[in-house]
Amino acid sequence: MAQAEATLPASGSASTGAPSTALTTADGTPLKVSIRRAMRRNKLLAFGLTLPLLLFITFSFLMPIFEMTFNSVDNRPVANTLHRSAAALQSWDGQGLPSEAVYAAMAEDLKQAAEERSIGRVATRLNYQESGMRSVMMGSARMIERHEPPWKEALIDINAAWGEGSTWRLIKRESGAITFSYYLNAVDMTYADDGSIVAQPEWRQIYVKLFWRTAWMSILITALCLVLGFPIAYLLANLPSRHANLLMILVLLPFWTSLLVRTSSWIVMLQNEGVLNDLMVWIGVISDDGRIQMVYNRIGTLVAMTQILLPFMILPLYSVMKGISPSYMRAARSLGANPLVAFWRVYVPQTLAGVGAGGILVFILAIGYYITPALVGGQSGQLISNYIAYHMQQSLNWGLAASIGTILLAGVMVLYLIYNRLVGIDKMKLG
Amino acid sequence: MAKFAPYQGTLERSWHYAYRLICAAIFLFLITPILIIIPLSFNAQPYFTFTPDMLSFNADGYSLRWYQDFFTSSTWMNSIKNSFIIAIASTILATTLGTLAALGLSRAHMPARLLIMSILISPMIVPLIISGAAMFFFYSSVNLTGTYTGVILAHTALGTPFVVITVTATLVGFDYRLVRAAQSLGATPQTTFFKVILPLIAPGVISGALFAFITSFDEVVIVLFVAGSGQRTIPLEMWSGIREQISPTILAVATMLISISIVLLVTLEMLRRRNERIRGVTPG
Fold it and tell me: Which CATH homologous superfamily contains domain B85-246?
């Protein structure tokens, strides 16, 4: 701790009122300096305590995220492998066919790529843009060794695609170090032959629809959570705490139970030979062959995710409602408001902070959900996250996965900022 | 019977009961899916529903075969081991880093507090699928995919926000005069921390640690991307079990996981009460 006890200067100068004399500490340093030093030390100490975690999060979490964002525009494999052709194509105006020099550069690039086995990635990458490019590139790289200049004739001989202007325009467009085609792809757009941006053909349009479906399902889930969570939170906040604590366990137990347990229990509940269908057949609501398909479709995703996310709505609502004094409602009633009016005009406005906090929290969680839709969603209940996973693990189109992920991340970050404004991240409470 | 105020009419009184009924239905929706698993895990048949034998409480309808299946399967046993190794290691790391950071963040002179807090909380906000994909790219570039270290570091990052939040919340009511008192009595910073600060913030630290533990123990998306075949955890086995050949063994595992969460829940509740008592707030 800094020595901050101020001592008046020993001489009588204070009484003479000389404006230059300042308060000093016991060892003679001016008080201001001493305080500033102490403050700086405190700041350093506080920052120093936070530093290890800050560094850890930066290296193990933020950097991966940035790298992924970078992956969504990274086109270096193509740019590096086809660097000669890319340079030669610079001067081509895109009309007709390029000159022999360009063909020679391409032949060189293909030879080297075949030798270094780097042609596969390039072929796959160009194939995303134009199906058929894969075999053009792979085939040409394999055959080029056996051909002699002039390269124009040789390449066209290997594959007629080299005799078409569109092939060269595609390569010219896609051989830069940075590409935006993944992003275009993620919003169902593509480059036309002349380089303008156009919509994908109808049958290839999936992502915009998926983004909307994800947003719409998340809104629906948030609304359902609000409708179901509000009465529960109100009940818990207004019961004597002895009862409320008991009932709270019913909210907290699902919250603490493994996500996979809850998801599998919904499969058990909802499937065709499941508990709910059996029960309905037994009661006689439906016939044995009229069992309702409730899982592996959108209903499954909706029901399971609502139950899984409901505690995230109830808890913030509860903590806000707990702080609302019952006397407001009583005052409203005594002033003649009927119960509905009193509730709607006096009580509900006071809960808006909780509604906002819970709503954004549930929405943020829902929009990025992966496990539950993957297990109970079937085809129609898949969300955008499932396609990120699909491109990461099955189609191996990592650039597209990264660009869809970056778009989703941007959306979540905007919501996070709003949440931060509304609730304050430091006021977030758990359990 | 509820006590009604004299001005409340019949309509309002019947609404009171209707409201209670609605709440009961919602509670049922919340809790049934969890409770239904428990009896079904003792099913003697490989079905996911109640057999007539079970409904008539015939002892033949029940068995422990799925538990036996679980405990004799080397795959499941291995996944238990992996889950505990990863969860315990990442909990220790997350709790240490998170508690230190929370101590720093709670000091009055912390510079750029909100910014740093938002960064530290971000692993909790970013959708898991994005974190998973990002960590896959990054960890494979530094050869950490398919290693325990990789999974543990990833889970530590996910767990720290919970520790930061719970410990910061505990520190809100912290009396820093106690620290000064300890120091004026000649305690070293280490002694002050372990003898004065830590016992007082222990409830927050422990509940943060429990959150970090369950986050890692229950996590599957990151494991899916970062772990190799040597680090398969319980949730990962459940995930592939549900996707490929769903067998009631999963229900037995689920029942055991539910018991773990009940233990955690009870511990947390006791901690919360203790914390309230320390702060002089009497629980009702």
Answer: MetI-like (1.10.3720.10)
Q: What ipTM was estimated for this complex?
A: 0.86
CB–CB of B130/A405 below 8 Å? Answer: yes
CB distance A354 to A315 below 8 Å: no
A69 lies in some domain: no
Q: Both tokens of residue B283?
A: 């629980």
Provide the pLDDT for residue B2: 58
Domains in chain A: how many in total? 3
Given a contact cutoff of 8 angstroms between Cβ atoms, the answer to whether B139 and A403 are in contact is: no
* Enclosing H/E stretch for A6: strand A6-7
Cβ atoms of A178 and A74 within 8 Å: the answer is yes
**Residues in contact with A409: Cβ distance below 8 Å, sequence separation at least 6, in sequence order:** A65, A69, B126, B127, B130
Cβ atoms within 10 Å of A142's Cβ, excluding its own? 13
| A289 and A265 in a common domain | yes
- Please check whether residue B224 is in contact with residue B209, taking contact to mean a CB–CB distance below 8 angstroms: no
Tell me whether residue A392 is in a domain.
yes
Burial label for A145, CB within 10 Å (0-12, 13-18, 19+), is exposed
Residue A166 lies in a domain: yes
Q: Does B179 touch chain A (CB under 8 A)?
A: no
Domain ranges, residue A362: 207-427
Query: Domain residues of chain B, as ranges?
Result: 85-246
φ, ψ of residue B67 to 5 degrees: the values are: -70, -40
A-chain CB neighbours of B135 within 8 Å are: 60-61, 64
Average pLDDT over residues A132-151: 86
Q: How far is B137 from chain A (nearest CA, A)?
A: 7
Does the structure show a pLDDT above 80 at A293? yes
Task: Pick the residue of B7, B126, B219, B256 with the most A CBs within 10 A to test the interface with A by mutation.
Answer: B126
Q: What is the pLDDT of residues B7-27, one digit of tens each?
A: 677 888 888 899 999 999 999
Identify whether residues A376 and A274 lie together within a single domain: yes
Residue A192 lies in a domain: no
Together in a domain, A350 and A383: yes
Give yes or no for A98 touching B (CB within 8 A).
Answer: no
Summarize pLDDT for B37-78 with one digit per residue, the tens: 898 888 888 877 787 777 777 778 888 888 998 899 898 999
Burial class for B94, CB neighbours closer than 10 Å (0-12, 13-18, 19+): buried
